[in-house]
From TrEMBL:
Topology versus the membrane: Multi-pass membrane protein
Upper lineage: Bacteria, Pseudomonadati, Pseudomonadota, Alphaproteobacteria, Hyphomicrobiales
Residue intervals of the Cation efflux protein cytoplasmic domain: 209-284
Name of the protein in question: Protein p34
Family membership: Belongs to the cation diffusion facilitator (CDF) transporter (TC 2.A.4) family.
Origin species: Alsobacter soli
Alphabetically ordered keywords of this record: Cell membrane, Membrane, Transmembrane, Transmembrane helix, Transport
């Protein structure tokens, strides 16, 4: 089974385990703040299922209806996760307001907090796995899932501290206030996921650092050409699409120009993981003299 699918299945298993533990902590204590933590875990499970479907679908090969592949499916998963986070935040705020109007004492706080803390530790370890592996695999769905879990871990830490203070001081109002803070944190996390995923759906270009790497690879491997211009890039899940125009001498044969294109394509695929390269060859009369200069042999050593 592909690594991405294994991680997605793992997220579902971890999410169900953590949800059970956090709900148990809520039942034992009656704390609305711990309830908010459990509600977020419900969203974690739903998001993990969405991530699994997206990772599986995005790995499907290109077909007649989707000639560029299915890479963007992962962005839909991340947008859905952001929307689910917002729904969870609204539900938590509703429960927090009701508890603020009718504060109630927290029961068995130590037992509940220990169970909740153990669940948060599991989440912390798993979110590190998802973010590190997801970035290495260029998987927006896995990275989004990991970042969501990270926000859950941070808010859970605040909840545990706050519920402990509420139990020690007897200030029951701290419980719903903490739940409201968790909801605000969840909303911020959801906004970040929707923003980043929307950029991918809108064909956002690569970062300036990635663009510099691409330009350097083109310049160093285009010997025989005059220049490259009209460079365009976009991310789509694991794939990075690179389009450019390559200007060659008018007398150059098709075979020779094709060899240059092959050299550039191979260099880009080595420099940029998942690069999908399209090169349009043009005669020297099309040169714009403001594109990517060709690095002549030996120039790098002289620089």
């Amino acid at each position: 089974m592909e690594t991405g699918l294994k991680l997605a299945f793992g997220s579902i298993a971890v999410g169900v385990l953590v949800l059970g533990l956090k709900y148990l902590a809520f039942v034992w204590t009656g704390s609305v703040a711990l309830y908010s933590d459990a509600v977020e875990s419900v969203i974690n499970v739903a998001a993990a299922v969405a991530a699994l479907i997206a990772v599986w679908y995005s790995a499907q090969p290109a077909d007649e209806n989707h000639p560029y592949g299915h890479h963007k499916a992962e962005y839909f998963s991340a947008v859905l996760e952001g929307a689910l986070i917002i729904v969870a935040a609204v539900a938590i705020l509703h429960e927090a307001y009701a508890a603020y109007l009718n504060p109630r004492a927290i029961e068995a706080p130590l037992k509940g907090l220990l169970v909740n803390g153990f669940a948060s530790a599991i989440n912390g370890a798993w979110c590190w796995v998802l973010i590190s592996r997801g970035k290495r695999m260029r998987s927006p769905a896995l990275v989004a899932d990991g970042k969501h879990l990270l926000s859950d871990v941070l808010s859970s830490g605040g909840v545990v501290l706050g519920v402990a203070l509420a139990a020690l001081t007897g200030w029951s109002v701290l419980d719903p206030l903490l739940a409201a803070l968790v909801a605000v944190n969840i909303l911020w996390s959801g906004w970040g996921l929707v923003r980043d995923s929307t950029a991918g759906l809108m064909d956002a270009a690569v970062t300036p650092q990635e663009r510099a790497t691409i330009m350097a690879a083109i310049s160093a491997n285009a010997q025989g050409a005059i220049e490259a211009h009209d460079l365009r890039t976009r991310h789509a899940g694991k794939a990075t699409f690179v389009d450019l125009h390559l200007v060659v001498p008018g007398s150059m044969t098709v075979d020779a120009s094709h060899a240059i294109c092959d050299r550039i394509e191979a260099a880009l695929k080595e420099a940029v993981h998942g690069a999908v390269v399209t090169i349009h060859v043009e005669p020297e009369g099309k040169a714009k003299h403001h594109g990517i200069p060709v690095l002549t042999p030996g120039a790098a050593s002289r620089a």
